[in-house]
Amino acid sequence: MKKIVLLLGLLMMLMLTACGEKQAESGSKAKKPKIGMVLNLGGLGDKSFNDSAYAGMKRAEADYDIDFSYVEPTSLADFSQYLDDYAMAGYDLVVAIGYDMQTPLNEVAPNYPDTKFVVVDTVVDQPNVSSVMFNNKEGAFMVGALSGMMTKTDKIGYIGGVDMAFLNEFRDGYTMGAEYANPGVEVVSLYVGGVNPFNDPARAKELSLSLKNSGADIIFAASGGSGRGLMEAVNENDGLYAIGMDSDQDGEVEGKVLTSMMKRVDNTLYKTIGNFVAGNLQSGVKVYGLEEGGVSTSEFKYTKELIGEENLAKLKEIEEKVISGEVVVK
């Protein structure tokens, strides 16, 4: 009888131990971090800023064990609502894309002190917000230098979404780079404006044709989805060339897009998510320039022969001077 009692006791202990181990295993299994991203106006398919952000997040989703979702706002009024929705739903990290997220995020972030936020392309000074910035002037300087080398009319154009300090960094860097490579060049700037400056291709095409008619033969557009209008104009007009923006747009009109000023939102977001998953994401501002790989020209896939080895070598030399500090893009 004693032996039976002892055996039963031993079986119960083994069962309890096994249950305890299963509970421990279940308790130790890490929950996937939930990450939500609010894109900017224009949404996916802009072949620009939003597409680059999405590509970086999808790469992070493939490499890190995260639960990722996104939304595409259709108006500025949607920004605050979507940010609030993600935070209220208990997402661990909320990513906001674009400079016009500044005011909405400043309103939402203080209401959710335990939620981490990342904003790309603007600065939000809150203790739970990490701001990812780019040295826009350095990137614009490089494509401006190429334009200065390549123009045959000594007149080039810039199309901005709106006339404001943030976007004028592109205009100023582009102008400085063009004048560095070609002191006799003229840069003419126009702006899309209107109710949807970053998703109005028709207006951007109209401005592109206006610049062409005034003598400009190369145009750089920093206007999000509106830039599709520049590509249409370039495709339809001989002797007119484009500079792409944000992502690699060289294939949009093969041989007619000299290069693209790439803001590597994909790389910077990928690095940011990696830091978050590792528990190393800090609030404050991180700036990515030429040296950090945050901005760059594209690979000249369709225009190497057109540009020529001598100009490409000059452009590389200019890039090295900017990185070393010999040339300062103020």
UniProtKB/TrEMBL annotation:
GO CC annotation, single: plasma membrane
The keyword Cell membrane belongs to this UniProt entry's keyword annotation: yes
Family matches, as InterPro entries: BMP_lipoprotein, Peripla_BP_I, PnrA-like
Cell compartments where the protein resides: Cell membrane
Residues in ABC transporter substrate-binding protein PnrA-like domain copies: 37-329
Membrane topology reported for the UniProt record: Lipid-anchor
Main location: membrane
Keywords for this protein: Cell membrane, Lipoprotein, Membrane, Signal
A Pfam family of this chain: Bmp
Cleavable signal peptide: 1-18
Family: Belongs to the BMP lipoprotein family.
Identification of the protein by name: BMP family ABC transporter substrate-binding protein
Source organism (scientific name): Propionigenium maris DSM 9537
